[in-house]
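Worked example 2:
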Amino acid sequence: MRQVLGPQPGEHILEIGTGTGYTTALLCTLAGDASVTTCEIGPTLADTARHTLTTNGHQPDIVTADGEHGVPHRAPPLPSLTGCVSYSPRERAEVTR
């Protein structure tokens, strides 16, 4: 992840698709909590990730919203990491069964 994103001091990272918060925790460790914003569309999952991250000593900016267009209060959020898709093409679904 460090090689791909190459986080620099003071640079902000946007993660779209927080999920359980595992990748968020890795990003916090690499770049520092204040450099990480993570966006999760599901309120329950965002709350779960928030609890898990806080319990493990991380406090990134967790936004509960659809991250398709980014997070305006954190623009420009480069580099970014996306862990979600808005739809799954039928062909892909057939291959992964």
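The beta strands are 13-16, 36-40, 61-64, 80-82. The domain at 7-95 is CATH 3.40.50.150 (Rossmann fold).
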